[in-house]
Design goal:
mainly alpha, 74% helix, 522 residues, globular
């Protein structure tokens, strides 16, 4: 005998199609949840519409809380020196470690995203960032600060930022360029707001309580990560699980080896492991491209050398202004001026570099921006008055906008897109090394000479020399390429690695789609 309630439910389903639609919608939501077997289930595909704009908003907030955060550390420079009785060199290791780990953790983040997904990586990064800043408020030595706020917070910021950029690429297809441009404004917003908030909290409650509050603010990266629901890749590819017979066979061989017997495949396994390690290094660290592609080689060396001096004004500008009689609130305002102007100039620079006139010439526009950064530092040497420093910040911000907008665009010009992600891995690791050692070496120079002018001399030297090196080297490379093309015999294969504008049209269907790109930004 059937239950009257089941008859009622059946009739409701037949007469009310909305109930069926609601059930289907709920099943689709369940399929989109990132559990351990998420690779075996279908996910929603809300590209370029609806929830994608919430993900874009989360990406803006993420970039403001991660990339926009390190420049405000210079405001605490003098207080940290006084409380820990540390030198300029010792204190500068703290922001240097944070920035270096933020830029150099790209390969580790890409492995994490591939294994667990973007949402997990962003939320883990937010948890690490918050824990690092909360722990730093209890530090009793500057070396403890290196580990907590330097390494842990830097690594968490790296996970949150890079996984957020990756998730944004999944959610936007048609409007991907617009979405990335809008998300990058979060960096400028963070650059503007963090110094103002830092100075206010520092005046009211000291640096320890300020770092404690910062830990709570950075935990909001977890909220942004929760918004980033997984979507199905356009290629339909899923995470592959091990083959059914592979695990039992491996266990049998391990048992055989533990009993003293030799496996016939033992040497073959060792060789395959070495080959796998080589392929992993080639995927994430493109040493083969560095050795063969002269354009990539020149650009990587130039940017790595440039980073020795690029971050110095952000760290030492506030201490330099305070030492020369500028009020602390006004000194903190200098960093905010740089970020505020960046909000408007960076999109304009991106549009300008996309003009057809600069097609194939973006490296020279980039070199010009780096050269302007170096020359602007001499303004600080002339005078340390607040009005002069404001003029310096305006010029520096314009030049920085060009550097930030063009860094990865030029890299796309000199490297084939199917190897871009691996070329980016080596590129970010090398630049993170010089970001790490540049400020402490300059701090040591200031400790020896007791003169902050050497900060700006040092920065100008690295920036100007890097700009001239890249411009002249690419000019010579283009001339050499033109001569080779003019003298080559018909039928010869053209040089594969040369500086040329990479095609922006869609790839043929026979070629695989480009790998997911994990981008860090300046």
């Amino acid at each position: 005998m059937s239950c009257p309630r089941s008859h009622t439910l059946a009739s409701l389903r037949l007469t009310n199609p909305c109930l069926n639609l609601s059930r289907l919608a709920w099943e689709e939501k369940e399929a989109a949840m990132p559990q351990g077997g998420a690779g075996e289930r279908k996910a929603a595909k809300p590209q370029d519409q609806g929830w994608a704009w919430m993900v874009l908003l989360a990406a803006v907030v993420l970039q403001g809380m991660t990339l926009g955060f390190p420049p405000c550390i210079g405001i605490f420079f003098t207080d940290l020196q006084r409380d820990f009785q540390a030198s300029n060199s010792e204190t500068s290791w703290f922001p240097s470690i944070m920035v270096a780990v933020l830029h150099g953790g790209g390969p580790l983040c890409s492995i994490l995203v591939k294994r667990f997904g973007c949402r997990f990586a962003v939320m883990l990064g937010g948890l690490l960032s918050g824990m690092g800043m909360v722990s730093s408020s209890f530090c009793r030595s500057i070396s403890q600060l290196y580990i907590t706020a330097g390494f842990i917070t830097g690594l968490g910021s790296c996970f949150s930022f890079q996984a957020g950029v990756t998730a944004l690429g999944y959610y936007f297809v048609r409007w991907r360029t617009l979405a990335n441009a809008m998300a990058s404004t979060g960096v400028s917003l963070g650059f503007t707001l963090w110094p103002l908030l830092s100075q206010y909290l520092l005046d009211e409650m000291g640096w320890r309580n300020t770092f404690l509050i910062f830990g709570g603010i950075l935990l909001n990266c977890c909220v942004c990560g929760a918004i980033m629901r997984p979507v199905q890749l356009s290629s339909g590819s899923l995470l592959q699980s091990p083959m059914a017979g592979e695990e039992p066979r491996r266990r049998a061989e391990e048992t055989q080896l533990s009993n003293g017997a030799s496996s016939p495949h033992h040497e073959l396994q060792k060789q395959s492991r070495r080959t796998a390690c080589f392929h992993v290094l080639q995927k994430y660290l493109a040493f083969d491209i560095f050795c063969q592609n002269k354009g990539y080689q020149i650009y990587t060396i130039g940017v790595t050398w440039m980073m020795m001096g690029f971050a110095l004004p952000h760290i030492y500008l506030v201490p330099y202004a305070i030492q020369n009689g500028v009020e602390e609130r006004k000194a903190a305002l200098l960093i905010s001026v740089i970020g505020f102007i960046n909000i408007f100039i960076r999109p304009f620079t991106g549009l300008l570099s996309g003009h057809k006139f600069f097609s194939g010439r973006r490296i020279y526009l980039f070199s010009l921006a780096v050269l302007l950064c170096g020359l602007s530092n001499f303004i600080c040497v002339v005078s340390a008055e607040f009005s002069v420093l404001i003029i310096y910040c305006v010029i520096l911000s314009i030049a920085m906008s060009g550097v930030g907008a063009l860094t990865f665009q030029v890299l796309m010009d000199v490297v084939e897109m199917d190897r871009f992600s691996s070329a980016l891995g080596l590129f970010t690791i090398l630049e993170s090394i010089t970001l790490l050692i540049g400020p402490p070496l300059t701090g040591l120079l200031v400790d020896v000479t007791n003169d902050f002018h050497y900060v700006f001399y040092n920065s100008s030297f690295f920036l100007i020399s890097a700009a001239l090196f890249m411009a002249l080297a690419f000019c010579a490379l283009e001339k050499k390429t033109k001569l080779k093309e003019a003298s080559k015999v018909p039928g010869d294969n053209p040089s594969r690695y040369q500086y040329s504008e990479m095609p922006t049209q869609s790839q043929p269907e026979s070629q695989p789609p480009p790998a997911v790109v994990y981008i860090t930004s300046i």
